[in-house]
Structure formats: C-alpha cells, structure tokens
Amino acid sequence: MEYNIMLRPYEVREFVDAATKSDCYIDASSNNHFIVDAKSILGVLGLDLNKAIKVTVHGYDSVFEQFIRRYAVAC
Q1: What is the tens place of the pLDDT at every residue in 29-56?
Q2: Is the terminal CB of the chain with fewer CB neighbours within 10 Å at N or C?
Q3: Maximum Cα–Cα distance across the chain
Q4: Alpha helix ranges (H) inside the chain
C-alpha cells in the first residue's frame, strides 16, 4: 500500500513510533530520490518535510493503516 502524507517536524516521532510497532517493512521517500526506513527517526527527519512524503507499506497492518490516514494528502 502506498500513501502520500505530510508531516510537521513535531509529528515525526509519533510517525516513527507507529511504524516501529508494525511488523511490516515500511519505507518513506521524498521526491522519489531518497528512500529511507520509516522506522528510523534520523532517516525520516532527513526527508524534505516541506513536500509530501510517499510511504510504502510492504504488507498489511490495519492499525498502522488507520494511523497513517490522519496524515494522508491527495497528490
């Protein structure tokens, strides 16, 4: 599943915590050039938070899906 989200810097920790609780592999990218592990706070902070971040969930986790929908944006 893929989602486009917007995060403010103060929301990154909550996002990484939610990703860490998931058993799925989750990656995040900005501008499709820089892909990081969404469970890495330094990796996510290294993304361009002024633009939409593409989050790819490899697998299915209903709890994380419900969480991520709060940050979803249309692109």
Answers
A1: 987 778 999 999 999 999 999 999 999 9
A2: C
A3: 28
A4: 12-21, 41-45, 62-68
